[in-house]
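Subject: mismatched residue count in predicted assembly?

I count 352 residues in my input, but I want to confirm that the predicted structure covers every chain. Input:
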Amino acid sequence: MRPEHLYLLRCPRTGRPLALDIVTMENDRVREGKLYDPKGKQEYPILNFVPRFVKPDNYAASFGFEWNVHIQTQHDHYSGVFLSRQRFEQETRWPQKLHGEFILEAGCGAGRFTSCAAETGATVVSFDYSAAVEANYRMNGHRENVLIVQADIYQMPFQRASFDRVFCLGVLQHTPNPEAAFRALVDSIKPGGAIVTDIYIKDWVHWLFHTKTYIRPITCQLPPSLLYRWVRRWVNFCWPLIRCLRRLGHVGQAISWRLLVADFYRLMPQANDAMLREWAYLDTFDMLSPRYDKPQAIQTFRRWYEQEGLAEIDIRIGYNGIIGKAVRPQRGQLNTDMLQKDEKTELTCAEF
Ligand SMILES: C[S@@+](CC[C@H](N)C(=O)[O-])C[C@H]1O[C@@H](n2cnc3c(N)ncnc32)[C@H](O)[C@@H]1O
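Triage response: the counts match. Full output below for your records.
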């Protein structure tokens, strides 16, 4: 982290500002050090340039593994297919220039969307529960407007109600309580700020006829490195058949996924065979390994937005299932529940 980003961080337990002890610096960034609450006992290490607010052995370990094996796979400059940028633009529909704003990204993985957010010129605070932050740091740590931290969506180390924009793509279904995770995100937005989140859609027919439903209870308990080895072998074994199935269009794709091979040919026909296979290793592993996989019905997702008193709610079918967008009402328009929440913690957005 850069020392000048200290003001963006708060103790996740007390909400108080933190102080910084630097042990080693490299290229104007803190490589090793410690953050601490000067009025309390809490301390948080900075390791390999990243502040760590959570224990390393948590339920997201498989994500830490996959994003550190596939650091670049889904980054546009590497894949050459610009799918991440397209998805970021289509799903957020935010302006291309956002200088002076503060964006929060929850569950950043290897940071393919961090780059897109950073290119708007906004200050981007990006976090993940897993060791994926190390992959993201390798990809985006050089950017002056990016702060990457390892933290939990349920106990974020930031000031409440302080971000102009919050986005969270591909994450909520992988948390133990997606609704509570969503509420935590809403809490971090400034009045007048915007939120974009997505979630897998719950579809009983799809659920019933997908092989993953039956095999995941076993695979999600396997050590990530063992599962990943098996996934690669399986994808390699099936690959000639997967290529033939592409001739059957949608049907062929559905069969491939039911054979437990994540084939992206229809989404990115311009990608070469090696790239498609790399995405297949990553996404097949991603389908079988997460501890939690909790899709939601579209009505449920909409209700979460409505219950938080958000305005301009727009829920639609998107890349990952359902995509939701909304705005947190300005202070004068906040409903009673939101006002009570906001009054509990002083709103000091001016500091930002
Ligand atoms: C499928 S990946 C998506 C990563 C990235 N957003 C993308 O689309 O490339 C889901 C990410 O959510 C993170 N995650 C899961 N639970 C979390 C939590 N409680 N707090 C923060 N991140 C979490 C995982 O570690 C993982 O990197």
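The first strand starts at residue 19 and ends at 26. Marking this ticket as 'not a bug'.
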